[in-house]
Amino acid sequence: MEADYAIIGGSIVGLSIAWGLLKRGRRVLVLDGDDGSFRASRGNFGLVWVQGKGLKQPAYARWTQKSAAAWADFSAELGESTGYNLALQQAGGYDFYFDEESLEQRVAEFETLKKELGGDYPFEVLRHNELKREEPNIGPRVAGAILHHQDGHLNPLRLLKSLADDVRRMGGTVKCGVPVKRISKRDLFEIEAEDGTIYAAPKFVLSAGLGAMDLGPQLGFSAPIRPQRGQVLITEKLPKMMNRPSGIIRQVDEGSVQIGDSKEEVGLDDRVTLETASAIAARAVAVYPDLAKAKLVRSWGALRIMSPDGFPIYQESSTTPGAFLVTCHSGITLAAAHARYLPAWLDGSDQAPNLEVFSEQRFAIS
Amino acid sequence: MTEVDLVIVGAGPAGMSAAVTAAEIGLSVLLLDEQPAAGGQIYRNVAKADETRGDILGKDYTYGLELVTAMRSASITHVTDATVWKIGEDGTVAYSVNGKASLVQGRKVILATGALERPVPIPGWTLPGVMTAGAAQILLKQSGLVAERAVICGSGPLIYLIAQQMIRAGKPPLAIIETQTKSDLLNAMRHLPHALRGWRYLMKGAKLLSEIKRAGVMRVTGAENLEIEGDTEVRAIAFTHRGQTTRIQCNLVLLHQGVVPNTQATRSLRLEHAWSSAQRCFHPITNEWGLSSLETVYVAGDGAGIGGAKAAEQAGAISALHVAFALGFITKADRDKRAAPILRLQSAELALRPFLDRAYPPSDQVLKPADDTVICRCEEVTAGDIRAYARLGCTGPNQAKAFGRSGMGPCQGRYCGLTVTELLSQETGTTPDAVGSYHIRPPLKPITLGELATLEQTLTDETKGLI
Amino acid sequence: MNNASPFHNISPSDDLVTVTFDGIEYILPDGANLAASLLEAGLRYFRNTPVSGAPRGPFCMMGACYDCLVEIDGETRQACMTEVTSGLKIERAHRDKGLEND
After folding, report:
1. Chain B contact for C67, CB < 8 A?
2. In order of start, what are the domains of chain A with their CATH numbers?
3. Mind listing the pLDDT tens digit for each residue in B372-402?
4. What residues of chain A lie within 8 A of the CB of B461, using their CB?
5. Are the beta carbons of A277 and A299 closer than 8 angstroms?
6. CATH number of residue B205's parent domain
């Protein structure tokens, strides 16, 4: 088949880009890995999250905000064409604190960022009693929370499903169970799958998550990414007990409570550990004491795709132009930006956002 | 943390016999089981069942008393009502009793978690009043309850046993509707010469069938298109036979399509598994001693592949002997000497199995459920949903799970996993081995967050920075 | 709902206690299996599914299927893995969802 772009990686990042390229009239071929591939898109927390991001890099904060702002429209369009309700809710989100001191420290950092962003950083501090009015089930140990009004959450599995559906509906070709072995450039980019099949396209996007660690260097990318494990716990379905999500606990639209946010540097190991799981559980019960009686039904470890500074990498290869590396650990939050704004950058259009600050060069300098 | 030589999970025939064998050699043994008394499902409640119950259930059941008695005299720590919810590769086992979580460290672990009944996704199988045939037997063993106005459906020798027990209890089933066909029986015949080594079982089977016939119970084989009817509970079951539809009003429907290894614990340890095309299920790969792909973990009994209660008992003893050898309690020569007669018995015990697998295959209806049939009971996902996810590029059960939540409910895929694998295998034209199975992660059974949270204080606080 | 029990007990117990299920009193054998005892008492469905609200009752009786979930002291528990004790207050799990769908 003829394609303008070959995209390696058929989870949320790759499919968001494919979706956006299709909207621009490009023909796309997406090659996806197999059922056992490490998949952040299956293990993520479903947050569309602004607060705390880019504290030391306002450009990242702005890029995140740009995506968050594009989400409502993106979600509505996806929902309309596929019939899936992504359950997007952008009514703000919390960061909980057990002591005043760390809360104050965070507020100071937020104030600094807010200035750099020209005041566009709508957050407020809720002390225990104010928080209790918003979230009646909050526990006595919670000193307060930062409520950031640009935060929200959605159902990430329905996002994955609707992207998979809509990309096909718009004529994109998606090949699943096709792990890629080798990529080379002659006239076209030639992608050799593990079964020996060759796929070719004039432009090429590597959005293979951790798969880029191996594939990136073949095209001159340094792809300095590493896995960072996050463990997540899921309860049985419960009656509604939370109004807004936080970075560590949220109630999904189907009723389960999702708890997580551990950060572990353990390589390509997505197992769950007792120590971390019980620490996560203890913290959740401290925030919402009623959770003590809730049944934990599932848990998993998923691997974030982390760059050295934690920001995304958007890079066109200097050795083989036409090849792009796209990698980030916030594929849900950034899905709207990847669908709406990144395709113009890939096309080299005048409307492309300036993503220079996210190039790999930033790691070479230091 | 408590430390023992051997942790055994499951107190059925394999677990009990492993415990007795290991304890007699001098190993410290902790036996964890989730029931209030030893016996597993096959000998459930055998120590307490009265004479009436014993008479109805027969000698194959009361035999279990010997195992339970042997276990009592050996020095074994048997923890009852213990839900095992995480097993580590290093032999640490987390379990809860009455809502309190504990950890134990075993130098070796024997998993004797037995079998589950194969899922039977047919229309109406989620209605109250539809149970597994095994459930009906458990009700009889545990509580002395006999189903009244029940219809037994499916395929497998267990159907005859439960029917006979119901007849003896004075409540014969209204009908036995079997799905295996005459050609299945003919196919099985080529295994008959080998199966004759298991002639005692063949005799028993013949005796059961004649008892059922004498009782005048309606029996049909080769039934198709089973459909359970009812609004909020079972009212009737309908099926077709030679093109004719029959409908039987009933109170209960007891389903059975054979049993399959319960692989939740073995999958959670990421042990190597293989697909058995004869038994249409996955089983962990073990060597002749039951040793898995992980040197700390053994799998004994039906959990390693269906062989029945006696074979499980033998497997438990064999694994325990290998553990005793591996830990330096006995020599290799001693191990082999003790194991030889057990292995001989086991080979005779398993002789009938290929015949049974052929004669009583799972029906096409449950292997290829109709689109509108619910296949994931917890999340109410249909076979048609799974087929649609396959068209959206799901090549395996884990992508399908992400797309449609099958396997995400409290049963954690126990009653949909095999169906999803079969469906994806059919849709993608690949083997069940290539399709694979759900990733299983702790907790193996749901526990409360409170239970998990309290463990935090007792563990080394490596994640202190989190709090 | 059909309250006649679809089960016959071949060795009934004399040692009885009182429990409630959704506020209605039931006299059940002390120490017996809760799911079995409720079935014997004529109860057919134990919960509603949280997805569609469909009624469910015991299916496997061996702690594997989670279809016999009930709520006791604010915690969902498997009736087939619970013993009858005097004064047990049992509620239908996810009853609200069920009513919503009625």
Report:
1. yes
2. 5-78+156-225+309-365 (3.50.50.60), 93-149 (no CATH), 226-306 (3.30.9.10)
3. 999 999 999 999 999 999 999 899 999 999 9
4. 275, 279
5. yes
6. 3.50.50.60
